[in-house]
C-alpha cells in the first residue's frame, strides 16, 4: 500500500478568489468507531464551502477522512472536529459540514455544523427562471 491515513490536510490556491462560489463534496464512506461499544459507525459527509484564499486538496481530504476509521468518536464530536480541522487548514468564507450517520440502535443521527468568517455576508440569492430540460433532439 502506497498511502496511509493521515491527519495532514493540504490546500491549493483558490483559482477564483474574487468570487463567492460553492464547492460541494459528498463523502459516502466515512467510518469511525462508537466510543462505547467499539462497533463501527458509518456516515455520509456532505461538505459545502465558499473558499477564501485556499481550497482543500482531495487526496489529502481522503487520507484525512480515512484516519478516523480506527478511532472512537461520538457523532457530534467527530463532526465538529472535522469542521474545525478543515476551517483551520483552508480559512474559508463559509463552511458547512453535514454528517448523516447510518442507523444505530434504531436511531438515525444527522449533525450539521457551520463556520462563517467574521464579517462575511453572502450575496443575495438570485432566483432565475426555470426551463424544462430538453432532449438532444427537438420536435
UniProtKB/TrEMBL annotation:
Enzyme active site: 34 (thioimide intermediate), 41 (proton donor)
Record's subcellular location: Cytoplasm
Keywords linked to the UniProt accession: Cytoplasm, NADP, Oxidoreductase, Queuosine biosynthesis
Residue numbers binding substrate: 56-58, 75-76
Record field: catalytic activity: 7-aminomethyl-7-carbaguanine + 2 NADP(+) = 7-cyano-7-carbaguanine + 2 NADPH + 3 H(+)
Molecular function, one GO term: preQ1 synthase activity
GO cellular component term, pick one: cytoplasm
One Pfam family it belongs to: QueF
Record InterPro entries: GTP-CH-I_C/QueF (IPR043133), NADPH_dep_7-cyano-7-deazaG_red (IPR050084), QueF (IPR029500), QueF_type1 (IPR016856)
Signal peptide coordinates: none
Pathway per the UniProt entry: tRNA modification; tRNA-queuosine biosynthesis
EC number per UniProt: 1.7.1.13
Domain of life: Bacteria
Example GO biological process: tRNA queuosine(34) biosynthetic process
Family: Belongs to the GTP cyclohydrolase I family. QueF type 1 subfamily.
PANTHER family attached to this UniProt entry: NADPH-DEPENDENT 7-CYANO-7-DEAZAGUANINE REDUCTASE (PTHR34354)
Function summary: Catalyzes the NADPH-dependent reduction of 7-cyano-7-deazaguanine (preQ0) to 7-aminomethyl-7-deazaguanine (preQ1).
Name this polypeptide is given: NADPH-dependent 7-cyano-7-deazaguanine reductase
Organism: Georgfuchsia toluolica
Gene designation: queF
